[in-house]
Specification:
The protein has 524 residues and is of the alpha/beta class. The protein has three domains: 3-111, Response regulator (Rossmann fold); 235-388, Heat Shock Protein 90, CATH 3.30.565.10; 407-523, Alpha-Beta Plaits (2-Layer Sandwich). It contains 14 helices and 17 strands. A five-stranded parallel β-sheet has the order 2-1-3-4-5, with helices on both faces. It has a five-stranded mixed β-sheet with strand order 7-9-10-12-11. It is elongated, with a radius of gyration of 40 Å.
């Protein structure tokens, strides 16, 4: 294959340039296009008009030197290969030429076609390398500039995001205060505490209370969405009776059913285990599901709130069943898909299944449960969820399985013992348990192993646990500074170990079982 080489010779001696041309013509498989110029200005003109592959530059020129021309060409942006021909084999000259931008240099007495071939190939390779380095540098500068712009935009977005969440939080709280007043005084009149009312007036008051409940639920949902998206929603899981959950939700549920002229059945198993959850949040789940059921129910229909023990799974299954219009297949599939999708946040879910059901899913997940739905068009719907029983070993298995979505990407799990420094009465022990529950994060669990002793399970590395211990101690100090009496009791905190979530859970479980002995563990 014949290769065409376009050569520009810059030499004030035509004879030397002619010798170079003849040597280049002897390079095998090469078709030469050769142009000779005598000085800098002619070289600039030729480079601007001609396709030049390689420049041969004589070192000794008059009135300038080849080194000066080389420097001018490189500083003006010329990036094509330049080979300098010199009559001197001086290493200092060679160093100066390379530093000024020469890709190669040749001593005239040693030049032959093979040497020229190698010099052209070397200079071309050097030129290509330089172009790549310059392109890399250009891209790096461009990337750094874009990164700075992106960081600036991200900071601005973070500020706007935080402002929006603060606005939602503040507005929600501002709404909550007058709503609480409206609800309290309306309830006083509705209950007859301010004097008798007629049946029609009571119906009106019931409607007002129902709508106030709707607004309160919407505000709570907005606050929780805000906190869930920022990872700030805390849960206070503890050992609870089923009555602790139902008592919080019953009045609202009854009013919801009455407002829709619906019959409400409460079908709760007589014997149910002690549960481990945040009773307030699970009560909200029930309220949201009943609210959702009333929207799909027919006038005069029936809603059933039920709870069943499932001892094999160490859990209780709650459900809300209606005999309404049911869900079409597309809506049912969308809800089931969203309920199965774990740990994706609430943003996308609210578009598919609505704010209330999205909150239901997240609150159930935070309490280590599952949520689901069964429905047929025109046959009604059942929304159900599970809550774990307060059985520590089964609960830890569930924790390891469910907590991945809110472990804040931690790949570690730690165990820490909390012991009271000196004996105190039961009220002080209860006070300390309450204090500890409000110090841990939603990805942590706290168990009381015996009076005055607790066991903390945290999705954290050992270094993180050190910071947690210091934060608990600092919070206890600050709490006691603001108390006039009954200070939070002093404690000692000892890390029993840290394990990786994947691969070392057997070691963690062994340490957890040992920490339970010899007493029965009771979650707090």
């Amino acid at each position: 294959m014949i290769e065409q080489i376009n050569v520009l010779s810059v030499d004030d001696d035509p004879a030397d340039s002619e010798i170079l041309r003849r040597l280049l013509e002897q390079i095998p498989c090469c078709e030469l296009h050769f142009v000779h110029v005598a000085g800098l200005e002619e070289a600039k003109e030729a480079l601007s008009e001609l396709a030049v592959d390689v420049i041969f530059l004589d070192y000794v020129l008059s009135p300038t030197t080849g080194l000066e021309i080389l420097s001018v060409l490189r500083s003006s942006g010329e990036r094509r290969p330049i080979i300098v021909l010199t009559g001197y084999g001086d290493e200092l000259i060679a160093t100066q030429l390379i530093q000024a931008g020469a890709d190669d240099y040749l001593v005239k007495g040693t030049v032959n076609p093979d040497v020229l071939r190698r010099a052209i190939d070397n200079a071309t390779a050097q030129c290509n390398r330089r172009k790549l380095e310059e392109e890399h540098e250009r891209l790096l500068v461009e990337l750094q500039a874009k990164n700075k712009t992106l960081e600036k935009n991200n900071r601005r977005l973070a500020e706007l995001y935080e402002t929006a969440h603060e606005l939602i939080d503040n507005v929600s709280h501002e709404f909550r205060t007058p709503l609480t007043v409206v609800k309290e005084f309306t309830s006083i009149i509705y209950d007859g505490l301010a004097g008798p009312t007629t049946g029609e007036q009571n119906r009106y008051l019931g409607t007002v209370l129902n709508r106030v409940d709707d607004l309160a639920i919407m505000i709570d949902d907005m606050l929780d969405i805000n906190r869930l998206e920022t990872g700030m929603l805390d849960v206070s899981r503890t050992e609870v009776e089923i009555s602790d959950i139902l008592d919080r939700a019953r009045r609202v549920i009854e009013r919801k059913a009455a407002a829709g002229n619906l019959t409400l059945d409460m079908d709760i198993d007589e014997v149910l285990p002690i549960l481990y959850c945040d009773a307030g949040e699970i009560g909200r789940v029930l309220i949201n599901l009943v609210t959702n059921a009333t929207k799909g129910s027919r006038e005069g229909g029936r809603i059933s709130v039920w709870a069943r023990s499932e001892p094999e799974q160490s859990q209780v299954r709650f459900g809300v069943t209606d005999d309404g219009v049911g869900l079409d297949p597309d809506a049912l599939a969308a809800i089931q898909k969203s309920f199965r999708h774990v740990g994706g946040g609430v943003g996308a879910d609210t578009k598919e299944i609505g704010l209330g059901l999205s909150i239901v899913k997240e609150l159930v997940l935070l309490n280590f449960g599952d949520v689901g739905v069964r429905s047929e068009s025109s046959e009604g719907s059942t929304f159900f969820f599970t809550v774990p029983a307060a059985e520590p070993l089964r609960l830890i298995d569930r924790y390891l399985e469910k907590s991945e979505s809110f472990r804040n990407d931690s790949s570690f799990i730690s165990l820490i013992e909390v012991r009271m420094s000196e004996p105190v009465d039961d009220n002080r022990i209860s006070d300390l348990g309450h204090f500890l529950r409000h110090q841990i994060r939603r990805s942590d669990l706290l168990f009381r192993t015996q009076p005055g002793d607790w066991l903390l399970v945290a999705a954290s590395s050992q270094g993180d646990m050190g910071r947690l211990i210091r934060r608990i101690e600092q919070s206890r100090f600050e709490a006691n500074e603001s108390r006039s009496g009954n200070p939070v009791p002093d404690t000692t905190l000892k890390i029993r170990g840290t394990w990786t979530i994947r691969g070392e859970t057997d070691g963690f479980m062994k340490a957890f079982r040992e920490a339970l002995q010899p007493v029965e563990l009771a979650p707090v």
